Amino acid sequence: MDNYDHIKAQGGEITVNSNEREEPYLFLIAIEQIKLIQMRCLITLLYFITIFINSLAQHRVVDSIKQALTITNDDSVRFRLLIQAGEYYAFINSDSSMMYTRKTIDLAENKNSVLWKAYTNIPVAFYFFVAGDIGSALEATFKNIDDYSKYQDAHLYMYSNTFIGILYMNNGNYKEAMNYAFKSLQLSDTIHLQNNLNNIHVSTSKESLVSEDYGVLALAYLHFNKLDSALLYGKKSYDMDTKYQLNNNYPLYRLALVYSKIGNTNMALSLFRRSVSLAYSQSIIKDVIDNYNGMAEVFKTNGQTDSVIYYAYKVMELSKKSNYKRGALEASRLLSEMYEEQGNTDSAFHYYKYMMATKDTLFNQEKVQQVQGIAFKEELREQENRHKILEQQAEYRNKIKINVILGSTFTFLAITLLLWRNNRQKQKVNTLLEKKNVQIENTLKELRATQAQLIQSEKMASLGELTAGIAHEIQNPLNFVNNFSEVNRELVDELQNELKSGNT
Question: What percent of the chain has pLDDT over 90?
Answer without folding.
Answer: 23
